[in-house]
Every structure is written in C-alpha cells, then in structure tokens.
Specification:
CATH superfamily of the largest domain: NADP-dependent oxidoreductase domain
Strand order of the largest sheet: 3-4-5-6-7-8-9-10
Radius of gyration: 20 Å
Distance between the termini: 9 Å
Helix content: 40-55%
CATH class of the largest domain: Alpha Beta
Number of strands: 10
CATH architecture of the largest domain: Alpha-Beta Barrel
Strand content: 5-15%
Largest sheet: 8 strands, parallel
CATH topology of the largest domain: TIM Barrel
Structural class: alpha/beta
Bound molecules: iron/sulfur cluster
Number of domains: 2
Shape: globular
Length: 412
Amino acid sequence: MAFAVQFRLASSAPDYEGQPMTHQSAKRNRRQFLSQTSITLAAAGVAGLRSPAAASQASSAPARRRAVIRRTLGRTGLEVPIVSMGVMNANNPELLRQAYDAGVRLFDTAQGYQQGRNERMIGDVVSRLGVRDKVIIQTKVPFPRGSGDVKAEFLAGVAGCLERLQTNYVDILLLHAPSVEQMTDAGIVSPFKDLKQQKKARFVGVSHHSNQAAVLRTAAESGLYDVALVGFNVTNANDADFLAALKTAASRGVGLIAMKTQTGGRGRNLGVLNHTALLKWVLRHTEFATAVPGFTNADQLNESFSVAYGLDYTPEEQAWLADKNVQVALDFCKQCGSCLPSCPKGVDIPTLMRTHMYAANYANFEQARATFDEIPARASLGNCASCVECSAHCANTVVIAQRISDLKAMYA
Ligand code: SF4
Ligand code: SF4
C-alpha cells in the first residue's frame, strides 16, 4: 500500500492530455530521488570529455548539406532514415512535428506508454499533419497476462492501439517483451497472421530487453517475425553470442531496429554523455536499419538527427569512446540476468534495474511504476531480504546495492 501511495505521488510522467500532476510532494520526491541517484560521470572523471550538443551541431553543420542516410528494414522493404524517434518519454506534440520536419519518419511507441496518451499524441499529430502515408508507426502489445483467450485478448489490445492512433493499420506491430515460448504461442501466431491478412498490421515483430540472443534466433527461425527491436549499445561490444545472433537475424531478413542506444539515457540530463558518439557506434553496425533514440526537446532532436547525415566520428567522439573511464561510468544494466543466482530471495533484479533507469535516468516515473508492476510479488522488493548490503553481484559495472537502496527509499 505504501508503495502505491508513493508511486502515485511520484507519478509525474509525461502528460500529453494535460492532467494536473504537479503535486509538490511528487516534485520533492522526484528531486530527492534524482539527487540521491545521480552518480555523476563527472565523479568518474569523464565530464570534461563530453562533446555536448553544441559541439555535435558544429560538427554536423557541414554534414547537414549531405543527404540523410537511409537503409532497408530487412524483408519489409521499408526504406527508413537511420535515425528514428523513440517517443516513450516525449509529451510535446510540437516536438513530433519538428521531428517530422527534420526528416524522422519512423515513430516508436507502445500500448502502455503514458497509459495510452503516447499513442494518442502520435495519432493526433499524424492526423493533423495529414501524413499517415508518409510515416511508419510502430507500436507494441504485450503477451496477455490474463487467464482467458490469448488471441482474443491480444486482438483487443491491438484494437485499442488503432483507436488511439486514429488509424486503421499500423506499419509495424511488435509483441512486447514475450518469453521465447510465447513468441511461438498459437495465441500470438494466429492473430499476427490474421492482422497481416486484414491489413491492420503491415509487418509484425518482437521487442525485448533480455535474453536477446535467444529472442533473435527464435525470430529468425520462425519466419513469422519481420522486425526485431533490440536493446543495443556500446556496452554490448564484446557480447559475441549476441553479435552473432544479430548477424543471423539480419541474414534471414529480419529488419533490425536498435533501442537503448544511449545506454539508458544516463546523463542525458546531467550533461555528461556523448550522445552522437553512442548513436554512431550503434549505427556503424550495418545489421541495423535504424535506431530509436528518445528525445524530449528540440536540442536533443537536432543532436540525434545530425547523426543521420554521417557516421564518421569526430576526434572528440573517438577519444570519448576510447576512454576507459567512460566504459566504467556508463554502468548500464544490459538485462543479462547474470546477477540472478547471487540473490538468495530470487528477486527480479534486472527488472528492478530497468525500473530504476526509467525513474533516475528518464525521470519517467509513470513508466517506472508500470515496469515495477510487471514484477510478481514473489520477486519484487517486498520479498527482498534487505541484506545489510545487497549481496547480488553484477557481471558488468552496475552497482546493484545502490540501486536497490534507491528503490527502497523511493517505494518503501
Ligand atoms: S538485498 Fe539484494 S541480494 Fe539481498 S534479497 Fe534483496 S536483492 Fe537479493
Ligand atoms: S545488474 Fe548487471 S548482472 Fe544483473 S542483469 Fe543488469 S547488467 Fe546483468
């Protein structure tokens, strides 16, 4: 109950429909949480290495005279600019219009983002601009959690998306974060085929945060999945199995789209990440047709879209990517699950780390709450034994104990 109250107060997520969500307590909680959790990269000695927006804009000025780079999205045949828009954290319709004017053509959203307001905003803007046939709308529906008819529940979810998006078809419909088994469940395969036949979904695919190599291989082998939305960034540089699975999927015609390219956005508001370097690093992997970095203002839009004009690194970007302090300071949770055996209570640490990312890095408390709610009680904070210091260990650089502590301060 205490969790619910705290979450409600802290729920200041993007508010497209303009509901008043400016409760002072909520603001205070968010500020406290953000200040408590802002382990700045500057402290790790990398702040001076950032190439900020101004630098990237300067470097992109001549690039802007070049053409936008486009790639083909696998077997879909869709030609897309290499930089698209992850809309999840955006709540300003004007920003969508600016993104369209800048050249963005693929917009990524989901049924659950901002409790449906995110899809409504896209539907309104696209309708107002009259550009439905010029944009690619990608949305996601999760595998139904209820005990009823999977196909019926999934189709009902898709119908809701179409209504909110004010369209009678989506270009790309993704199954959101399923298990590998759910990807080939008849309750999903059947509606996917029906929706394509009825032209309510031009193409279908999958999006996932964890177990990504297995998801990609399943997508490639099934022949059903046209697209995969994959978390991919510089922290994956040495993940041989994952990199091999990417190549396999691409060779089988699965169109690949990258998300989490900015290592979860850590530092976006702290002014310490070199976003153009991170985005270029991802897109230099030509298995990916495009990426969906999230941006919430015009500066971030311009910074991200400058990358669409050229993928050559500037000297500053090269130096930043090569800096070992940067690698350590990124402390991005790759959702690899390696920490799970080290927790004696079976707590779902990866999903808690993702909850933390949405709250601390994106300041999207609504999405944090939704992610937290995905965790069954037996694996959530309520079942955490509150070891004096969390004994779970990260295979990478994430300080799990600090984040568990942050979450307890936030939700307990
Ligand atoms: S404190 Fe850490 S190791 Fe201990 S139960 Fe909680 S999550 Fe697991
Ligand atoms: S906390 Fe570390 S070990 Fe656990 S899922 Fe994230 S990256 Fe992997």
